[in-house]
Write a structure and sequence with these properties.
Elements (H helix, E strand, L loop, with lengths): L1 E3 L5 H14 L6 E4 L2 E4 L3 E6 L5 E3 L2 E3 L6 H14 L5 E7 L6 E4 L12 E7 L2 E7 L5 E6 L4 E4 L3 H4 E5 L9 E7 L3
Antiparallel strand pairs: 1-12, 2-3, 4-7, 5-6, 7-14, 8-13, 9-12, 9-14, 10-11, 10-13
């Protein structure tokens, strides 16, 4: 895992945040868990190249077309991560109660050793990482404009989450770049 806290300038962060809020087609999802429907506590969007379909939690996602600003960001992320990406899962955390539980990005479409690159915009949130073997937890405060690259092999060794918080926090957008095969 490699963390770049100042990947984007303040001006780039502000412009991208506005583009994401205004032009991404956000939607809410619900999952069936033990026979009951539960709303996913965040808004999501799937963006990518034609044919970059993605299934997670039993939901098939068809990609929306790249916005020019997100395509330019993808190019910059690819250069830093030294990896090609063809899709983007965007998550919009509106407040502290929006979250994502412990998981690994290990769906078959991502390949055996996926690289996932994550750009954060907006409010700083606590990102937790735990080892599969010992369950030891590390925390990382993902600041606006930062890039976190979870390198090949990370998803098989660790799980990660963005937990709920009772603290008052602003809105956060997380842009996670992936390669769908």
């Amino acid at each position: 895992m490699v963390y770049y806290p100042d990947f984007l300038t303040l001006e780039e962060q502000r412009k991208l945040f506005t583009v994401c809020v205004q032009r991404i087609h956000w939607h809410s999802e619900s999952l069936q868990i033990f026979g009951q429907q539960h709303d996913v506590p965040r808004l999501v969007a799937w963006i990518g190249d034609a044919g970059a379909e993605y299934t997670y939690s039993g939901i098939l996602h068809q990609p929306s077309e790249w916005l020019p600003e997100l395509n330019a960001l993808k190019t910059a992320v690819e250069q830093r991560a030294e990896t090609a990406f063809n899709a983007l899962l965007a998550n919009r955390y509106r407040h502290g109660q929006d979250s994502i539980g412990w998981h690994a990005d290990n769906e078959p479409e991502l390949g055996l050793k996926p690289v996932v690159a994550s750009v954060s915009l907006g409010a700083t949130r606590v990102f937790k990482i735990r080892t599969n073997a010992s369950k030891q937890v590390q925390t990382l405060h993902l600041a606006s404009g930062s890039l976190l690259v979870m390198q090949a092999g990370f998803q098989s060794l660790y799980q990660h989450c963005l937990a709920k918080t009772k603290k008052t926090v602003g809105e956060r957008i997380n842009l996670t770049f992936r390669q769908i095969s």
